[in-house]
Amino acid sequence: MKTYKIACIPGDGIGKEVIPAGQEVLQALAGGGAGFDFQFTSFGWGGDWYRAHGTMMPDDGLEQIRGMDAILFGSAGDPHIPDHITLWGLRLKICQGFDQYANVRPTRILPGIDAPLKRCGPADLDWVIVRENSEGEYAGVGGRAHQGHPIEVATDVSILTRAGVERIMRFAFRLAQSRPRKLLTVVTKSNAQRHGMVMWDEIALAVSKEFPDVRWDKELVDACTARMVNRPASLDTLVATNLHADILSDLAAALAGSLGIAPTGNVDPERRYPSMFEPIHGSAFDIMGKGLANPVGTFWSCVMLLEHLGEKEAAARLMQAIEEITADPKLHTGDLGGKAKTTEVTAAVIARLKNR
Ligand code: NAD
Ligand code: MN
């Protein structure tokens, strides 16, 4: 029997509530006839670690998790610590340290979810957004000078490399090719950003020649927001830069009904390092510690984790169980207009997994 080593990093806020729930659900799928098992190791990194040690994770943190098969991550963000410290000190450190250059965000309207687009049925919204996750606007290049003086200056320089753009384009075309519609939209802003984004467009065109069976088009990022709302069925797979896809994917999550449902994977397609799966929501300060968090985003992230490990059957079983519980309004948490608690939703998913 194969044993997968999984690093669990709950982080902060509701991360501490949804990650243990995800671990329980994964455990319910393992053992016996499944043919695989999990060995979980939890790491108490994040805001509490910062208060105790002055850093979000230990200096050798990446070494501690390098040998894992995958990482299940909650959220980084603490009400008492500036966001750029929590984000860069933990989540981005892992994403960049492990060169997880493809951030993959599936979006669908699950059964029973009341999504805001009244003119569109669930079948009209089935997207995967691919976010360049290693450079671009979040490369961390820039600085500040003359701090505190009237002539103070601050820069964030977007870095696009030919190698970086080629690899994300290739990943996105390959993903589009693997989906039934074989349709890719390359999101750009080459009208206003006339250097990096023009190269981005040129590389998209060059890589497209390797995928003659994939239909593709280009859309400016601002126009893309309108298209997502007005013509959702015209989109399938999208690829965008770090910043553009960050924003588009929050819109996508809202259009699908709630931030509490949406999953993501930070993937190293070459599998040199462990990939990291996480709900896209943050620490949710307003509801943390109350047992009210929707764990579905974490469960769906577990589906992606299982797919990444090659456990397609277990992944499909879990997705099926998720769709059964979202279809039942009694199992909706507050973000979906219901009253269910994190523990109730978790128990319901596990009960469905056990009943098969
Ligand atoms: P957020 O996602 O934490 O919350 C936005 C709103 O959505 C809140 O009203 C929250 O209650 C609700 N919500 C989010 N997830 C939910 C869930 N699972 N169930 C029910 N309701 C849910 O975003 P924010 O308020 O902008 O950020 C709070 C903190 O989290 C900040 O410190 C931010 O930096 C951090 N953050 C971290 C990540 C990450 O680690 N990947 C992502 C986003 C935000
Ligand atoms: Mn975001």
Give an account of the 3D structure.
- The chain has 356 residues and is of the alpha/beta class.
- The chain folds into two domains: 198 residues, Isopropylmalate Dehydrogenase (3-Layer(aba) Sandwich); 111 residues, Rossmann fold (3-Layer(aba) Sandwich).
- The chain is 39% helix and 22% strand.
- The chain is built from eleven helices and twelve strands.
- The strands form two sheets. A ten-stranded mixed beta sheet has the order 2-1-3-12-11-4-5-10-8-9, with helices on both faces. A two-stranded antiparallel sheet has the order 6-7.
- It is globular and about 55 Å long.
- It starts with a strand and ends with a helix.
- The model has no long low-confidence stretch (mean pLDDT 96).
- The structure holds nicotinamide-adenine-dinucleotide (NAD) and manganese (II) ion.
- The site of nicotinamide-adenine-dinucleotide has 22 residues, from α4.
- Keywords: Manganese, Metal-binding, NAD, Oxidoreductase.
- Its cofactor is Mn(2+); Mg(2+).
Q: How are the elements arranged and paired?
A:
Elements: E1 2-11, H1 15-29, E2 36-42, H2 47-53, H3 61-65, E3 70-75, H4 83-97, E4 102-108, E5 126-132, E6 136-145, E7 153-159, H5 162-178, E8 183-188, H6 196-208, E9 215-220, H7 221-230, E10 237-240, H8 242-255, E11 263-267, E12 275-279, H9 296-309, H10 312-326, H11 342-354
Bound molecules: nicotinamide-adenine-dinucleotide (NAD) and manganese (II) ion.
Manganese (II) ion (MN) binds at residues 246, 250.
